[in-house]
Design goal:
The chain has 288 residues and is an alpha/beta fold. It folds into 2 domains: 29-92 and 162-286, Alpha/Beta hydrolase fold, catalytic domain (Rossmann fold), CATH 3.40.50; 104-159, no CATH class. The chain is built from 9 helices and 12 strands. The protein has helices at 28-43, 59-68, 96-99, 109-121, 130-141, 143-148, 168-172, 225-228, 252-265; strands at 3-4, 7-8, 26-27, 50-55, 73-79, 104-108, 155-159, 161-162, 183-188, 234-239, 274-278, 284-286. Helix 1 (28-43) crosses helix 2.
């Protein structure tokens, strides 16, 4: 990529050898294997199940891990989980070249802030200029990306991923989520990343009930995950005036409190099961 938002940026270092990664860098198998390795290492040093917290796309990995090794997982706390009801059930036979064709994605600050602004337009509340502080921390974490895009305040680098096994059919067929593994789902009502929306800003899947062919990618709707979980030990809370970047928004303390309560007590504000909406006054209102 020689330009980003119409302006030239320094090119990545060139190699004299053939490019070794013509496709995606990671997939469900590799990332689950990495997480399992960490869990296995922890389990040799501490006693008892391990609580997993997953944000956004991490739900593909922590959710699948809980389904495959439920004895190792004490509970799941999922913030804004990416959940495609008609995502891939299995690894595709001919996956990477047609889906990606390149190993790494670059995202600039304007693109990141634009996504956040979309959430804000739908009601998500954030402090003035917090996006500048967040971006500085991202660039501090990835000094290479900061140097690559030094002319445009840096670029966020992340690998192309091929994920499967986390959809309506797979979760409905699982016997561990919500039984052996209690699950809490928390999301913002203004989230436009894991609730795919149509031109009218309404959730796209609200008006779509027809079965779809399995495919990689959107539409996403985190609200579909709750009914797909067959066990009764499940809790879902939507939070008013928050978006996909809740951990950096005005109600971040609510999120921090919720995650702490869940890990310690398997309940949030006295609730351990059911679907609720936290309104602008901080009350939990049952959702039918």
């Amino acid at each position: 990529m020689s330009k980003l938002y119409g302006r030239p940026i320094p090119a990545p270092p060139l190699s004299v050898r053939p490019y070794p990664y013509p496709r995606h860098l990671t997939d469900s198998n590799s990332e689950i294997a990495e997480l399992w390795t960490v869990l296995n290492w922890i389990s040799t040093r501490v006693t008892g199940p391990i609580h997993l917290v997953g944000y956004s796309g991490a739900s593909f990995i922590v959710g699948r891990t809980a389904m495959e090794w439920p004895a190792m997982v004490g509970s799941l706390f999922l913030l804004a989980p990416a959940f495609p009801p008609w995502g891939l059930s299995d690894e595709p036979a001919i996956p990477a070249p047609r889906l990606f064709g390149f190993p790494l994605k670059l995202q600039g600050k304007p693109e990141t802030v634009a996504a956040w602004d979309y959430d804000q337009r739908l009601g998500a509340q954030r402090d003035p200029h917090i996006e500048d502080t967040v971006w500085k921390q991202i660039m501090k974490h990835d000094s290479v990306g900061a140097d690559w895009g030094s002319q445009v305040e840096g670029v966020l680098r992340y690998p192309t991923r091929l994920w499967w096994g986390w959809n309506k059919a797979m979760v409905e067929g699982d016997h561990y989520l919500g039984s052996n593994v209690p699950v809490a789902i928390v999301y913002g009502t203004s989230d436009t990343q894991v609730i795919t929306r149509g031109p009218d800003d309404r959730p796209l899947l609200d008006s779509s009930t027809a079965p779809q062919v399995e495919h990689s990618g959107p539409p996403f709707d985190c609200r579909w995950l709750y009914p797909a979980i067959q066990g009764a030990d499940k809790l879902m809370i939507s939070i008013d005036n928050t978006g996909h970047f809740m951990q950096w928004e005005k109600q971040r303390n609510v999120l921090h409190s919720y995650s702490e309560q869940w890990i310690k007590n398997k309940s949030i504000d006295g609730q351990s099961k059911g679907s609720y909406h936290r309104d602008s006054s901080g009350n939990l209102v049952p959702v039918p």
